[in-house]
Amino acid sequence: MAKEPTEKAAEEKEAPKKTAEKKATAKTPAKKTAAKATTKKATTKKAAPKKEEQVETPEVTAAVEEVETPVAETTEDVAVVEDQKEKIEDTQKAQAEFLDNFNWHNYQEGIDVIDEKQLDEFEKLVKENFVDTADEDVIEGTVVYMTEREAIIDINAKSEGVISLNEFRYNPDLKVGDKVEVIVDMREDRTGQLVLSHRKARVIKAWDRVNNAHDNSEIVSGFIKCRTKGGMIVDVFGIEAFLPGSQIDVKPIRDYDQYVDKTMEFKVVKINHEFKNVVVSHKALIEADIEEQKKEIIGQLEKGQVLEGIVKNITSYGVFIDLGGVDGLVHITDLSWSRINHPSEILELDQKLNVVILDFDDNKSRIQLGLKQLSAHPWDQLSDELKEGDRVKGKVVVIADYGAFVEIEEGVEGLVHVSEMSWSTHLRSAQDFVKVGDEVEAVILTLDRESRKMSLGIKQITPDPWTDITSKYPIGSKHNGLVRNFTNFGVFIELEEGIDGLVYISDLSWTKKVKHPSEVLTLGDKIDVIVLELDVEGRKLSLGHKHTKDNPWDKYEKEFALDTEHEASITEVVDKGATIHFNEDIVAFVPSRHMEKEDGSKLSKGEAATFKIIEFNKEFKRVVASHTVLFKEQEMKNVRRASAKVAASNSEKATLGDLDALANLKDKMEKDE
Q1: 298, 305, 228, 304: which is closest to 259 by C-alpha?
Q2: b or e along 174-194 (b: 16 or more beta carbons within 10 Å of the residue's beta carbon)?
Q3: pLDDT at position 75 over 50
Q4: How far apart are CA 73 and CA 86, in angstroms?
Q5: b/e per residue, 499-529, with b = 16+ CB within 10 A?
Q6: What is the tens place of the pLDDT at every residue in 273-289?
Q7: For the chain, how many structural domains are there in total?
Q8: Is position 518 within any domain?
Q9: Whole-model pTM?
């Protein structure tokens, strides 16, 4: 339905007022409430103006809009307009009542009061006093109510939020009125409740504090909760940080448990944001203080200066001493004038002691200290009456391949060379004579006080066995000795301690061809020997073992003389012949051409036959035998006999052919022979 000209003009006139009223209503909830109340009051009036006096105002328009049935605006929808005509008339009556009771002066005055400045101040107050629950910032709230399971927190939002009391387990004394840090965890749960989180807020604030401490190198306080692999777990602002064992103190820590449940100061040295790891150090704080002390101490260091220190670490090669921020090393050789095997024998950890500075490098980062230098050298206190040839007693402190060191007084040692441990010319290891800790008696052989060296001898305690060697071991005398050592040319026999003799390989057996002594003897065997030669000045004895028995070759020389015949079997066949054993000593050789039998075949291994000795050499122990020569000689004899007979009786009748045949047979036999 088209609007009348009068209504249209009124609407244009009241448009600015309507806009201002909407703005004021939006900005000031109080004014909006008042406007609603006024509208409600206006609608209760029963008097209605005449139809031609009705004017359309913003309030009237708003009242019309409240009617849910719309008015048709086109002529095409005539049916709808007729149906709603009655309702429109009722609305117009309500408009008239509203206009009669509306105070235009007060309305215009309210619009003028609400200017832009007041609107800005109002918005500022809203921002300052009301929290936007869409933000994820940590905010401070107040506990306004508590139940058995939850705490109600006021954060100046449209509604209070709730937090489970489990998040306050660390604070069992929480009460109404306490201020707590929270973060909006859920703007609205299934019941429409605002859910807050104190734990998440603490974590966020803790990380902010940790990052700030790391960036600004601030010192933080932490509670050591427990041990872990390689270090400790520390609670810093509610975050579990790692404290490496090497970062607890400047000195090595042997008991980590002593730090558990303690609160200490730390420095945040590393943060891994990707894995949420924090590393702290207590050592860094100590080093800062020590560095100042270190500079002061290093600046005053001088060789020969005596300082007090604490044993910081003990190793196999020495001891590290803490001089108050500066570490120095006392080598094991500078700990004591006496020889020690390990520094722990005389020092212990955390022990206080005085040391002397022996040396240091250019920047004084490596300091060499000494402990024994604080006392007089034992050699300077050695008795002036002690001289070469004197007998002394001492303890074996070190054994080397070449000898043993014997300490005769604290810090005074002498060397006993292995050659001075026994009169035996056959050298052995020092371990064969003494061991560490043995108490021994020795004779001073050399004494050099300036170089502080001494040589000792143990064998000199007993008489030299070579003193009366000629009477004890004359040439030709028979003795029993111990097999001590083998060489390629013979074996050494010990007759007594200090008396060794050599048996050459050729003097071991009359019959066997020995290539090495180990073929017939074993170390430790006891054998009989005869003194063959004696060199007193050279301290040498030449012995013989085979000479203790008769030479069997004297007997074999007759038994196996040339042309004697013996029964034997082929023992072994070789390339150029074979060997046969007549007995345990005599092994004869049979050349290949002497193995031929009468029928033309050859003897084989294990076959028995008669052999004739065709060579016997006593000096070289060589025996040669032959089987073939037995029947060849008989043939030769028969030929010779026949030849002589024919030549004697029928010399004239013999034909030239017969003589040639006999001559050829003779040559053949001689050739075979």
Answers
A1: 228
A2: beeeeebbbbbbeeeeeeeeb
A3: no
A4: 16
A5: bbbbbbbebbebeeebeebeeebeeeeebeb
A6: 888 889 999 888 877 77
A7: 8
A8: yes
A9: 0.41
> Do residues 249 and 191 share a domain?
no
55 Cβ contact partners less than 8 Å away, ≥ 6 residues apart: 6, 7, 10, 99
Phi and psi based region of residue 116 (left: phi greater than 0; alpha: psi -120 to 50; beta: remaining): alpha
CA 450 → CA 268, 379, 502, 521, distances in Å? 60, 9, 43, 52
Torsions phi, psi for 388 (to 5 deg): -65, 140
Between CA 151 and CA 157 the distance in angstroms is: 16
Statement to judge: residues 118 and 9 lie in one domain: yes
Which bin fits 524, alpha (ψ -120 to 50), beta or left (φ > 0)?
A: left
Which of 484, 518, 548 is where one domain is finished? 548
pLDDT for 640? 65
Return the DSSP state at 247: G
Query: Both tokens of residue 640?
Result: 């010779």
Structure tokens at 201: 């807020």
Average pLDDT of span 564-586: 86
Is the domain of 14 the same as that of 83? Answer: yes
Residue ranges making up the domain that contains 612: 552-626
Is pLDDT larger for residue 142 or for residue 13? 142
Confidence check: pLDDT of 112 > 70: no
Longest dimension (CA), the chain: 210
13/103 same-domain check: yes
Does 115 lie in the same domain as 180?
A: no
Interval 23-62: pLDDT, tens:
334 333 333 333 333 333 333 333 444 433 444 444 444 4
pLDDT at 18 over 50: no
The reply to whether 347 and 397 lie within a common domain is: no
Q: Is residue 295 part of a domain?
A: no
Closest CA to 237 of 216, 258, 211: 211
Tens digits of residue pLDDT in 539-551: 888 999 888 887 7
Residues 455 and 385 in one domain: yes
SS3 (DSSP) at 517: helix
pLDDT number for residue 603: 87
- What angle do the packed helices 656-672 and 628-649 form, to 10 degrees? 160
Burial class (CB in 10 A: 0-12, 13-18, 19+), 611: buried
Task: Give the CATH number for residue 455.
Answer: 2.40.50.140
Q: Which residues contact 592 (CB under 8 A, 6 or more apart)?
A: 576, 577, 578, 602
Whether residue 167 lies inside any domain: the answer is: yes
| pLDDT > 70 fraction of the chain, expressed in percent and rounded | 72
Is residue 144 within 8 A of residue 153, CB to CB? The reply is yes
Q: What is the mean pLDDT of the chain?
A: 76
Contact 285, 247 (CB under 8 A): no
Is residue 293 situated within a structural domain? no
**Over 90: is that where the pLDDT of 175 sits?**
no
Last residue of a domain, one of 510, 526, 548: 548
**Rg value, the chain, Cα:** 64
Residue 472 backbone phi and psi in degrees, to 5: -85, -35
Closest CA to 43 of 103, 3, 91, 2: 91
Q: Could you tell me if 521 and 483 lie in one domain?
A: yes
Task: Give long-range contacts, CB 8 A cutoff, 24+ apart: 576-581.
Answer: 578/603, 578/605, 580/611, 580/625
Cα gap 615→561, rounded to integer Å: 8
